[in-house]
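EI: anyone free to look at a 211-residue chain?
SC: sure, send it
EI:
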Amino acid sequence: MHALSDKKYSLQIRRHIRRNLARFEVRDQPQDELRCAAVTLPVSCVEDQPALIITRRVGGLRAHSGQWALPGGRIDEGETAEEAALRELREEINLQLSPRSVLGRLDDYVTRSGYRITPVVVWCGLQQQELRPNPEEVASIHFIRFSELASPAAPRFETIPQSDREVLSMRLDVEQIYAPTAALLYQFREVVICGASTRVLHYDQPVFAWR
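SC: here you go
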């Protein structure tokens, strides 16, 4: 793609995302006894297609070892969710962005393991070869194209005997990804890509993610 048309296409994507996020009424959740965390949903481009960056955690971690995740972690004292999200993005995949890269937020999601996760959508526009995983936390970095997220076959809803809520997952090329990450991916798909106002707090996680 020609550089000028590529720049114009990127601008169109960012405008689309900003417009849909501006229309969306974000719902915050009370902290109560929860630990506060922030994750980033970094939007990039792969072969001229918009995509999200996700990671797979290294094996052997104390919590959520080997699971699929968005770059993120605990919010330090005095930090905003946006500041924490950008810091974790830098620490986990060597991607340093300015506050101007923030496009908006999605709903807080409360996990079974006692976290209130605040999702922050950012624009990076980089290619994978420019990223570098932190070997202490990240095993690999992957791109999920918008077209894959928007597929009608991607979201899965199932019941389990341990919960009266449906468990949400997203069937993607890399693997079947479960909530909480799947919940954030699904709301991103609905709000950012499709322009809907879908909520995901009521969806549960599989038992293996409760710890």
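EI: DSSP finds four helices and eleven strands in the chain.
SC: 👍
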